[in-house]
Amino acid sequence: MTDATPFPQTSQPARPERAAIVGIQETSEDGEATATITLTYHDAEYKGEAVGSAAVSARPRIVGEATLRAVEAVTGGRLQLTLDAIATTDLGDSRVAMAQVGMVGSSEPLVGSALVQTSDSATATVKAVLDALNRRMSQVLR
């Protein structure tokens, strides 16, 4: 038996504050769908909206675009974002939403993912977009 030397206790750096999802609203009328995403950051609410085809296959893109508009609002326009790709796929026994986001002025793609819980692909899409952007947002919002 050997004596174990404990590691010195260090304080953990504070976890960066992140925007949180307040609401996801999707409406459809006359072949057109609208998604409105509401985020909260420092007790203020920020909304983003996107409009597109009401086709089921178009919904993830509309939700992703609306999320980007909400993030741009949170950052006061300091981030200008593009949704380069959005997808949902099976991964083992799970369903996963994935997002690839571009930033104007940067060639580095940002990628995020989130598990789809109980067939709620809209929430997973928002979370995947936020996952791609959380570190960049915290840098901008310092």
**Strand portion:** 35-45%
> Strands of the largest sheet, in order across it?
1-2-3
Task: State the separation between the terminal residues, measured CA to CA.
Answer: 49 Å
CATH superfamily: Alpha-isopropylmalate synthase LeuA, regulatory domain
Radius of gyration: 18 Å
What does this structure look like?
The chain is α+β, with helices and mostly antiparallel strands. It has one domain: Double Stranded RNA Binding Domain (2-Layer Sandwich). The protein contains two helices and six strands, in the order βββαβββα. The protein has a three-stranded antiparallel sheet. α1 runs parallel beside α2 (121-140). The relative contact order is 0.17.
Give short descriptive properties of this protein.
three-stranded antiparallel β-sheet, Double Stranded RNA Binding Domain, globular, 6 strands, alpha+beta, 142 residues, 25% helix
Task: Annotate the secondary structure layout.
Layout (H helix, E strand, L loop, with lengths): L19 E10 L2 E10 L2 E10 L5 H16 L6 E11 L2 E10 L6 E6 L5 H20 L2
Short description:
The chain has helices spanning 59-74, 121-140, and strands at 20-29, 32-41, 44-53, 81-91, 94-103, 110-115. The protein is an alpha+beta fold.
